[in-house]
Each structure stands twice: as C-alpha cells, then as structure tokens.
Amino acid sequence: MPRRLNDGEPGRFTATALLLIGLISCVIVYAVFSTVLRPSQDRTLLVDSAVRFTEESPDHAAAVHGREGCCRGIDHLELWGPAVKWGTDFKFNSSRECCKACKVMCNGNDGPCLCDSWVFCGNKEACGSKFGECWLKKQKDVLVPDRQGGGENVIWTSGLIFGQGQGIVGFETEHGVIHVKLHPECAPHSVYYILSLLTLRHCAGCQFHRAENRGSYWDSEGEHVHNAPYGPPYAMIQGILQAEGNMFTPIPTEHCPTISRGSVAWVGSGPEFFISLANHHEWKQSYTVFGSVLPEDMDVVETIASLPTRADVWNGVDVSVLEKPVSLTVRRMKTGQEQEGTGS
Q: Could you give the CA distance from residue 143 to residue 135 in angstroms, rounded to a whole number?
C-alpha cells in the first residue's frame, strides 16, 4: 500500500523536493517577466517584454491612475513656508490624514491651491508634545519648495500637493515638448528628484535611447488588439534622467498602478525611465509611476517612437534602439497664472 506523503522519510523528501521545485519555478517566472524593462549590466537600459500590471485601465485623469487614494510624504524632511493651518492646534493620528487635510484645500478646478505642502510629526517618542501636529503651508514657489531641514535627526514628514494645472514640467526635445504632470502625493521621492533637475544649469546626458511604437498590437487609444501579441514592439519609449557628472541615489519603490497610455515611470529605481504608448494590462504593478503625459502631447511621444531604430538584444529580449538618441531637457512650465503675473 502506498504511503502518504507525510509517512516516513521518502514522504518528507518528496515534499521538500516539491517545495524546491515550486520556489525555482517562481524565480524563473519572475526573471522572465522582469526582463522587458530591466536595465542591462553595461548600460542602464529598459528591456522588459511583458511586465506585470493589474488594475483597471486608466486615461490621464487622477482617478484613473489610482491617485485619488494616494497621500504620501517624505520622512525626515521639514518643509518651511507660511502656515495656513498651525499644527499646535491642528492635530491628526497619521501623516495620511494631514496630507488629506491639505488636499481638501487644493481641490478647485483651477489653482491656486490654498495649501500646497504639509508637515507632520508622527513619531511619539521623537515628537513628544509635538506628536500629531499637522502644519499646512503655502509655498512661494511650489516647484522650488522651501526646505528647512533633512536627515535622520529631523522628526518631521513632509509632502507636496499640486493642484490642477500645477506641477507640470516639460521634457524639451527637438521634436517638441512633452508636458508631464507630476504626482507628488503618490511618488514624493521621485517628484523631489525631478524638481532637483529643474535647478541644474544643464541636463547633458538626459535622453531617449529606445523607441518602440504600437505596431499593430495596440490601437490609437492604447487598447490592446484582441488576440494580438504583447510585443515586440512594446509600445514605449525609454530614456535616462540623470545629468552627466551628477551622482544619483536610487529611488525607493513608490506608487505602482497599472501602466496606461501616457504613464511616466522608472525602470527599477531609476534613473532609467519610460513613457508608455499603451495600456499594459499584462504588466502588473512593478513600476513606480511619477507622472503622466498631457494627452495633447502624446503626438510628440508617438513621433519619437517612430524614429529610425536598429535591432538589439537586451537580456535575451529583442528591442529597438534609436539610431540617434534624442536629447531632452527638463524645464519648468509656466501656468496661466504665472504668465498673467509676468505679463507674458
């Protein structure tokens, strides 16, 4: 009579063997899925082919990107600026509640926001009597926030909120400007890094170097064609956001929604990034999305994706590399109100 798997040594051996086979299978599956957008060893380039994402497919609206539920900040950072709510008599139990209180003051159809930054003290031991204090503030220039202090000794957590029409930067290329709406409430570390690029005199080295159009696999709205393959081509353009000579600190994983047409996301921890031309349902939540391209500028992205390329293979995946990389510069874009204020 055969033994049960838990009867005696052979059973235990079989169970162990099955467990090891299962673990090895998981590793293999992960390796395959993470190939399409992963940097190669000699160049930090995006290479994945079918990465994982799972949520409802969005357009460019906040709710569609799953951003309505985001309220994140950066620990050990204190932003300064005029207070619109004093934390001494405005307290909450979490940084999320403090962030949401600022959001409520920035929910109009157009700016300016009455609150565009918040500071919270959430460590009971370190904060002492300041625990729970929520300071809501208004920056003089929200794209250049006034930083009071940072580092492990700083007890505060801070975040930014961009209203509609605010927090838009431009990726300037020879083919046109790609306007990107940043999402600080979902990817605060990422956005803080992008804002730091605005302060540089140049962004030499920032460029797009991989381009893959939608082919016949995705329609003009980014929807996948029924029964079509998922690539190649993979309906995206990839580049790097790091100025030559500048050190780069890897960015922690932040909000990873479903990649949709217009999503701007990091490859791994950066500085490699990509802009998607399609709604990639087959890519499950694996990439930090820190911005979205304004719909009217997707034509520029499509143009770059259609430039001449040469075939290459990265980590066993067929990719299309631009014959001539497209340089880009990160610029701040004036809002309508800023233009009115300067008379331009």
A: 19
pTM of the predicted protein model: 0.80
Distance CA 198, CA 332 (A): 7
Higher-confidence position of 96 and 8: 96
Give the type of residue at 321.
V
Q: Where are the alpha helices (DSSP H) in the chain?
A: 8-33, 95-104, 124-127, 188-198, 298-305, 336-342
Query: pLDDT tens for residues 117-164?
Result: 999 999 999 999 999 999 999 999 999 999 887 888 999 999 999 988
CA–CA separation, 129 and 131 (whole Å): 5
Sign, CA torsion 164/169/171/172? positive
Domain ranges of the chain: 69-160, 168-332
Same fold yes or no, 69-160 and 168-332: no
CATH architecture of 69-160: 3-Layer(bba) Sandwich (3.50)
Strand 207-212 relative to strand 317-327, pairing: antiparallel
Q: Is the pLDDT of residue 27 over 90?
A: no
d(CA 238, CA 269): 14
Which amino acid is located at 56 in the chain? E
The superfamily (CATH) of domain 168-332 is Cyclophilin-like (2.40.100.10)
Max alpha carbon distance in the chain (Å)? 92
| Structure confidence by residue, pLDDT tens digits, 255-312 | 989 899 999 999 999 999 999 999 998 888 889 999 999 999 999 999 999 999 999 9
Which of 204, 100, 222, 83 is CA-nearest to residue 139? 83
> Residue 323 burial (CB < 10 Å; 0-12/13-18/19+)?
exposed
Cα atoms in the 13 Å half-sphere on the side-chain side of 20: 6
